[in-house]
Amino acid sequence: MKKSLLALVAGLLLAGNVSAASAADKLKVGFIYLGPIGDLGWTYQHELARQALVKELGDKIETTYLENVPEGPDAERAIEQLVRAGNKLIFTTSFGYMDPTLKVAKKYPNVHFEHATGYKRDKNMSTYSAKWYQGRYIQGLIAAKMSKSGVLGYIGSFPIPEVVSGINATILAAQTINPNIKVKIIWANTWFDPGKEADAAKALIDQGADIIMQHTDSPAAMQIASERGKLAFGQDSEMIKFGPKTQLTSILDTWGSYYIERVKAELDGTWKSEDSWGGLDSHLFAMAPYTNMPDDVKKIAEDAQAAITAGKLHPFKCPVIGQDGKEIECKGGANLADGQILGMNFYVKGIDDKLPGK
Amino acid sequence: MQLVLEKRAERSNTIALVSPLIAIGLTIVTMTILFAILGKNPFLALQAYFVAPLIDSYSLQEIAVKATPLVMIAIGLSLCYLANAWNIGAEGQFLIGAVAGSWIAVKTQGTDAGPWVLPAMLVLAAAAGALYALIPAICKVKFGASEILTSLMLVYVADLLLDYLVRGPWRDPNGFNFPTTAEFDPVATVPLLIEGGRLHLGSIIALLVVAAAAILLGRTIKGFEIRVVGAAPRAARFGGFNANQLIILTFAVSGALAGLAGIIEVAGPVGHLQPGISPGYGFTAIIVAFLGRLNPIGILIAGLFLALTFIGGEQAQIAMKIPLDVTKVFQGILLFYVLACDSLILYRFKLVFPSRQVARGAG
C-alpha cells in the first residue's frame, strides 16, 4: 500500500513536471542555502550560479534547493532530505553546514558533497572557498584614498578567520596610503539581518566613519550610506542599484563556473574530493566595476588588482605586525602561509579594537 | 440583519473538540486556492505536506526529533501559563541548560571519564535552567518586576554567554578559530534509539515528561492548586493557596525542562556546542503550548503537528519546488485559523435583527 501510494505520487509528479524518461536519466544536484534566495547577497549569488548551471547543463541535470536552512540541527535533516530525494551531488553553501554535511557524507558514501568555506573534508566531501581577502586589500586602498575623515566603518558578521583576515587585509592596504587610518568595527553576529545591518551602518556613520564596508549579506548598509551621503562597498553581489552614487566597488561571488566544472566532473565520473581555494586568478570571485571615484584612485585599484592576479602582490606580505607590536611568525616564506590566513585569529597593528574571544 | 459574536454562558466542550478540525479544514481550503493560484497541483502539494512525511519511517523519526525539544519546553511553559506566570524566556533557559551541560562534556573531553558523564550533564542542565528561570520569578515575587520582560531579556544574556564561551574559552583548539567546541565524546552523547537514524533517547524523556505533567495536573493537589491560582486567583487566596510560591515553582520546573531540552539537543542531534543551536525553539514552544490548549496530551499532539509542517514544508520544497515562503504562509494561516476557531469555544455567532440593533444604537 505504502509503495503503491508513493509510486502513484511519484508518477503524478513526474508527469506534472517533465517527461518521466528524461527525469530518470538526469543527474540530480541539490543545494542548501543559508538565506532566502532573495537576500540579494550571499545566497542570491549561489542561486545565480545554480541558474547558470541549469542554463549550461540543464538537459543533463535536475537541480533542487532548500533555502533559509538554519545552521543547527535542522541542517543535517535538510541535507539528508536531499539525499533521500535522489540528489547525487549536493552543495552546502555556508560554513555552519560543515559538521552536518560531514555526518551525512559518512552515512551516504556514494553521494558527493561540496561544502563552501569549511575545512573538514572526506573522500566524498570537497570544500571550496575564495581568497576574498585579496578583494578586501583593493577595497582598503580605495577606502584610504576616498575617506576624508580617515575613519572607516566595518560591519563584521562573526569573528571567524575569513572575516578577520578581510579586516586585516583592508587595514594593511589602507595603511600604505594613510598610516593613521582608523577603523571602527561592529559585529552584527548575523550573516543576514537587514535591520541589524542598517543599525550598524547608522552607528558607524554617527561615530565619524565616512566609508562603510561590510561582511554581511544584505544591501541594507549600502542604502543607509546612500541616504547619509557616504560611500560604501557592496558585498557578495552587485549592489550598485541600492547606491548608484555610493558604491565604490563590490566583491562579487561568482560560483557559476565552479559549479559547472564540478557537475561536469560528476557527469564524467571524474569527481574527486578536493580543496579549492581560489583567488582573483581563479573564477571564484570578481570585483565589480570601480565607480564613484576619481581616475587616479581607479588606477590604483586596477593596478593592485592586476598585481594580485599576477601573483606579484600579496596582501599578507611579511613582515606582518600584530596588534601587540610583535611580528607574526612568517610560515609561508615571503608571505603568511595559507594556513595562517585560513585560521587567522589576530588583528594587525593599527586596529584600535579587541578581537572578540581573544 | 447583522452577524455578531455573543459570549456563551459556559464554554462549549463540543467546540473545544471540533475547533482544531474546523481550523485544519479551513486551512486546507485556503491552501488549495493558494496552490492553484501558484499553478501547483493542490492535491500533490497537500500530499507532500501532510501525507508523505507520515508514510515513511525516516520522516517519522525526523518529526519526533524536531518535536522533542518543542514538547519538553512547552510542557514546562504550560504549567507557568496555567498558574498565570508568564515565562517568555524559555529560549534563554534552553541555552543556559545547553551551556551548563556542555561544561561537563568540554571538561571531560579526551579523558577516560565513564558513563556518569551524560547523566551528570542532564542533571546539571536541568538545575541550571531552573536557577536561570528563578531570576525573573524571584524578581517578580520580591520586587513586582514584570516577569514577561525580565525573562525575555535574559534570553539575550544567555545567547551572548554561549557566544562568548564558544568563541573564547571553549573553542575547539583544532577548529581554525571557528566558533564551536570540539565534537563531544561518545560518553557525553545522547544515545540513538535506531541505528542509522537520528531518533534519540530524548524523545523517550519527552514522553515521560508529558506523562508526568498529565498526572501532576490531573491527579495531584499541586496540579489543582496551579489551575485554581491561574483561573481564579481570589478563590485561590481564600483557599489558602500561595500564588507567589507557585510562580517560583512553575518557573523552576519550566526552566528545568527547557534546560534539559537544551542539553539533549546539543548532546544529541548537534553533537557539540555552537551558536545557533536553537532555531527559536523557546519561542516556538509558546505557540505549541497554546496550540495544545495548555494540556499535556494536547501539547504532545501540537508539537508533533508543528514538526510535521516543518518536515512537510521541506518535502514540498524538494518535491514540488514550492518556495519556503509558502510554507511559512501555510503555518501562519493554520495558527490564525486555530486561534480564530478557538474563540468559538467561549463565543458563538448570532444573527442580530434590525429592530434590536436600532435600540442598541440609540444607547
UniProtKB/TrEMBL annotation, chain B:
<feature type="transmembrane region" description="Helical">
    <location>
        <begin position="329"/>
        <end position="349"/>
    </location>
</feature>
<dbReference type="GO" id="GO:0005886">
    <property type="term" value="C:plasma membrane"/>
</dbReference>
<feature type="transmembrane region" description="Helical">
    <location>
        <begin position="116"/>
        <end position="135"/>
    </location>
</feature>
<feature type="transmembrane region" description="Helical">
    <location>
        <begin position="199"/>
        <end position="217"/>
    </location>
</feature>
<dbReference type="Pfam" id="PF02653">
    <property type="entry name" value="BPD_transp_2"/>
</dbReference>
<keyword id="KW-0472">Membrane</keyword>
<dbReference type="InterPro" id="IPR001851">
    <property type="entry name" value="ABC_transp_permease"/>
</dbReference>
<keyword id="KW-0812">Transmembrane</keyword>
<keyword id="KW-1133">Transmembrane helix</keyword>
<dbReference type="GO" id="GO:0022857">
    <property type="term" value="F:transmembrane transporter activity"/>
</dbReference>
<feature type="transmembrane region" description="Helical">
    <location>
        <begin position="12"/>
        <end position="38"/>
    </location>
</feature>
<feature type="transmembrane region" description="Helical">
    <location>
        <begin position="147"/>
        <end position="166"/>
    </location>
</feature>
<keyword id="KW-1003">Cell membrane</keyword>
<protein>
    <submittedName>
        <fullName>ABC transporter permease</fullName>
    </submittedName>
</protein>
<feature type="transmembrane region" description="Helical">
    <location>
        <begin position="246"/>
        <end position="268"/>
    </location>
</feature>
<feature type="transmembrane region" description="Helical">
    <location>
        <begin position="280"/>
        <end position="308"/>
    </location>
</feature>
<feature type="transmembrane region" description="Helical">
    <location>
        <begin position="63"/>
        <end position="82"/>
    </location>
</feature>
<feature type="transmembrane region" description="Helical">
    <location>
        <begin position="94"/>
        <end position="110"/>
    </location>
</feature>
